[in-house]
# Entry
Amino acid sequence: MKLFKKTAIAALATILSMQMLALAFEGENPTDNEPSPVGWYISHTGVVAEIEENEDDGLKKIALANSSGEIDAYFYISGDTLIIPPLSSNATDIEKGVEITGYVPSNRPMIMIYPPQYSVDVATFAEEGLFSKADLFDSDLVSGDKTLKLNLGEDTEIYAAADGKLEKVDYTKEELANKKLLVNYDVSTRSIPAITTPKRIVVLPEEKEPVTDTDKDEAYLSEILQAVPYAPIVVGEDTIIKKPNAYAIGNEIMVPVRAVSEALGYTVGWDDESRSVTVGDTAFTIGEQILNLPVAAELKDGFTYVPLKFFTEVLGLNNAYFFEGQIHIDNFEKMQ
# Structure
């Protein structure tokens, strides 16, 4: 999959090692002699402060607040996100005011911005007196980061997750070995690793195919495209357009041509009979290809949209790219 070149260059320049992110996330200080083991997932916990839903695809952007009430992370929740209900109920609705934890593979590339944005694979609800942990557990049921070991008890409930639902199963230790698990537990020993008898174990879905470099690239591009409908459009030095929203068609970012062009100083015209648009001296028709751009202009919710590349390849501006959660369009020094 390809995204326009400037986007890829600008965005890829912001990626940090996810292993280092995972270590920093857990507050570890790795040394040259004893690198800390990294688990399969990193996690973030916070109270749901805001929920935005994209009506086109149902994707939810959830703002999480820390103990001080400050927004310190965003979760993207899609139809593929496994939402695990609390032990005390079957509720899976994420609402404002509830505390949730999201889990993301520690080796997944991501856009490095603040607050961080996570495309969450698994989400679970916080419950008083209970802890949760998701990781790949080995044959001894020790977590990948070597911090927790599981003992199965008579009261441990075990479920398998499939198609977004939980089904109760009767697995042995051997059947749980070398699987990705989410566990809910209360007390644990003070040893290293800590030992606990979980209240519940959820066997997380297995990946159908091995993850390749192409898969990782596609996952990264997916992270970018999921953020597009929520991204402000920064035109020139200080003009910010929040509505109408940008969106994506395949890997192409579509932006509202009138709002952006007028912010750049162009006169924009519309001919209802021919369904054509003029931007300065440039004219094009809705539904027809503009020069060699991969996507035609289109009408959406009463607004005309063009590919982001329109502003560099047709109008000749220096920059039109997505970077750190924002879409930038300007004629400043050309981004390399």
User: Anything to note?
Assistant: The first strand starts at residue 41 and ends at 53. The chain has two domains: 5-211, 231-330. DSSP finds six helices and 25 strands in the chain. The CA atoms of residues 22 and 109 lie 12 Å apart.
